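With this grant's support, we have settled on a layout for protein records. A representative record follows, to show the layout.
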Amino acid sequence: MILEQPIFLLGCLLALPAVWLFIRAENRNKKRLALLADTSLQNTVIQATGTGRRRLQFVFLMIAFLLGCLAASGPMLPGGEEKIKVTGIDVVVALDVSNSMLAEDISPSRLERAKLALNNLLLQLEGDRLGIVLFAGKAYTGLPLTDDKSAAQMVIESVSAGTVEYQGTAVGAAIDQAAQLFYDNQDGRGKAIIVISDGENHEDNGAEAAARAVEKGIVVNTIGIGSSGGASIPEFDENGNKKGFKRDAAGSVVTTRLNESELQKIAADGKGMYVRATSGDVGVGKIFSALQSIGKSTKEIVRYTKLTPLAVWFLGVAFLLLIADWLIPVGAKKRTS
């Protein structure tokens, strides 16, 4: 059986605290019963209160919940299969998530436009592996190198300007972090980094980091997102409503501008290319197309020619269990004479 969205299986973990609370409640009731009823009467009391039926109801409910999580993970039954050869490269995108990326000089915002471009990039991947590094004042791995497009899409959708709390723009740290994600290049597989940022680097030297990456056989490309004229940085309340613009200590509205010279130098020292983003085209596709000329490795993979969805069957069984759970009577049945 194949799972399209295995991450939904993590929902099964929610059953653990429910089971723990139920067992705890049952033990507490058992202790109370031991204090209030004679041993010879306990079975009668248990039958009268429907304890056994309540336990059966809980078991049915838990099984239905687990089946629901399994259905959400997209179970598929594979049929025929064939072996095909695919070629690809490894690409790590270093995405700037600092507050300046909230500026709206690139519609709808610098960050949202970058996320749209990454989702479009996923459609072009065929045999390629993608990794994601998120950075502001520090850099973190958002996604290790993988060919799992579903996992990549989930990471991209979850990105926000608050993903990295420590503010700033540490481009150099992001490049160093991205370089660590690549596997040993024993098969000659091409390796590239794409930095998407407005270039307002206040933390370190990105060009030096790019040069270090080149020594490891990695090409570093950059995309400048923003305008040279600059834009204000919007601020939002806890409900996501815009409440004004970021101000400095003197009370003046902060303006963030694209620093093209910084990003161009990084691309030059990284032996890659620089592209300036627009609202219509961020430039990720252009760089990815250019990267097709670097070394690729070929591997043989198994592709299933027929997949039968099983989710509806798991949901059907879960639904029947819920009906059975509802039909189980609570308490003892009244005797008729």
Q: What stands out?
A: The chain is about 40% helix and 25% strand. The first strand starts at residue 2 and ends at 3.
